[in-house]
Records
---
Amino acid sequence: MRVLVLTGAGVSAESGIPTFRGKDGYWRNLDPARLATPEAFEKNPKLVWEWYRERRQRIRNAQPNAAHEAIANLAQHAHEFLLITQNVDDLHARAGLPKEKMVQIHGDIFLTRCSRCDFGFTERKHEHEHEHEQEQEEEEENVVPRCAKRDALMRPGVVWFGEQLPWNEVQRVEGYLGGGVCDLVIVAGTTATFGYIIDWAMRAAAPNGELIEVNPEETPLSQFATRLVREPAAIALPRLVDQLVAQPPEL
Ligand SMILES: [Zn+2]
């Protein structure tokens, strides 16, 4: 079984990570869709960093949910597997999905990288769990980190609105799509507003392959799906994966 899974904010929302849409996503009455831009960072890097530090902390305190676990389980049972996630948190990884089976197409929130050169480092919780690390982070709370190599500001390693997708990650997706059609494509918890999500899902699905959408709401992808599951991912995916593992789709 060759599988492609695409996930979006809906999957993390069930772990308590607010989405950018709707009132819940607002931070200090600010619209995240306007904070997550190169323009906002240029204008007020301190404010943008404050917001990202809070989001990092929230993610550290969150736990993977049943959807993350079901996807990691499916990956173990598939012959070939790739997850493309729009989520910048580490919940898929913490549910046990190996890095090489996952593309974070919108970046990684725990990555701090230079806005000018290729210098960067990660601040993932499980990579350093020392107490002083915590203190250091608190100490630097009001500081915008700077790159030592170039006199430039460091920024979170995420893709902001209006920015291009990371080239390497796009190449990994293209490599997987070029390696053959998929028997099964699952698109979960994404409103599929980005054209490339729909494009990848449709290109991946074999002519007779399954394209399953898991989302409580209708999306632009719904009309192309072979199966619609109108439920939250944490409820639908464990059941769906159990069925698929017991009885894989036939081409
Ligand atoms: Zn630099």
---
Amino acid sequence: MKQKDVIIIGGGAAGFFAAINIAVQNPELTIAILEKGKEGLQKVKISGGGRCNVTHAEFIPQELVLNYPRGEKELLGPFHKFMTGDTIAWFEERGVALKIEEDGRMFPESNTSQTIIDCFLNETKKHQVEVLYSQTVKSILKDGDAWSIITQAEEFSAKKILVATGSSPKMWKLLETLDHKIIQPVPSLFTFNINDKRIKDIPGVVAQNVEIQVVGTSLFSEGPLLITHVGMSAPSILKLSAFGALELAALDYKFTIEINFIKMALEDCLEALKGLKLDLAKKSVLKAPQFDLPKRLWQQLVLASKITEETRWADLNKNQLEALAAQLTKAHFNVDGKSTFKDEFVTAGGIDLKEVNFKTFESKLHKNLYFAGEIINIDAITGGFNFQNAWTGAYIASQHISK
Ligand SMILES: Cc1cc2nc3c(=O)[nH]c(=O)nc-3n(C[C@H](O)[C@H](O)[C@H](O)COP(=O)(O)OP(=O)(O)OC[C@H]3O[C@@H](n4cnc5c(N)ncnc54)[C@H](O)[C@@H]3O)c2cc1C
């Protein structure tokens, strides 16, 4: 049996971050990471389309927490101790400069996730953290004051353990044997499948700022909307998928959304269209997009309002004006299924928030058992917030584990 002071289960974002920080804070401790894969940090590698969206340029804890459909309340305290600015400083101190993109997402200046991986691997080496690959943890047992950890290959003993296995159903099952309650996982951060004539031929078109309501629910979001080959994506949709993860799963991903493409009330839009009818009387309705809408989207909405290609503004009758106003401000689309958002996806669910002490990230049920990252029932919208949760939890746990 191999004895260590600290064992980290899971060599992903949270596991590496915790191990390195424990080693920095207390160089006396013997620390090992047990990772089931032949390599670790695989999600970091593919994250952010291979660029790793490390965090988000939001520096106010009260604002930052609003990006977490699950974990909003619980992360407020932790973010006061370690958040975005600390993440940036941490990486900068280790030679990894981060840059901010227009929408607030932060990436390594190198534009490759390999920079983050190299940084972690260098740091573990430098601080003598042992990283043991091909070690799948099969059981975790209490052994007096210590923990016994059994992998398919070996047995380990440690005084303190941190479980950072991300969204691993097997580990959640194992933790149930330690009496932890697991909130059943459902996907979060997905795109909507929509088979609709209006968007069929216009993939790639972006409406810059729309409002979307899931009909029959209070789920609402706003932001950019992207038409894809199979439906719709971009922040307005991804936010709904995250905040509505449970509700949309219960609907089996079959529901209707109402889109306001121009963020205007129907009546105001109708008035504006009447004005255009006078101002642009002799002009073709189809050819001149209005309300800053992309031309191809405008054309689809016009055609869906039973307005033909030849129609001029002056020719529009009351029904056509009303139909166009409805298409612009209350367009209904039927969603039938979901697709994976390739840049980032997470799982809602995990260890019940009530069973974690967010001052230390220690289990409330067992002493010297800690959690960090996606294993806990915390997840965020897209933009670097999921990693920030991993860094924050891992850092705070490291402070207590290293004592
Ligand atoms: C395609 C994709 C892109 C993403 N991009 C971004 C992004 O750009 N920005 C962002 O903020 N978030 C992103 N995310 C989300 C982010 O990757 C996760 O939230 C984050 O990796 C969670 O970290 P973690 O350490 O909790 O889990 P993970 O990074 O998943 O690490 C868990 C580790 O535990 C290991 N493990 C599991 N079970 C066992 C076991 N029994 N024994 C030993 N080891 C085990 C796994 O092999 C894995 O290495 C993305 C996710 C995906 C899928």
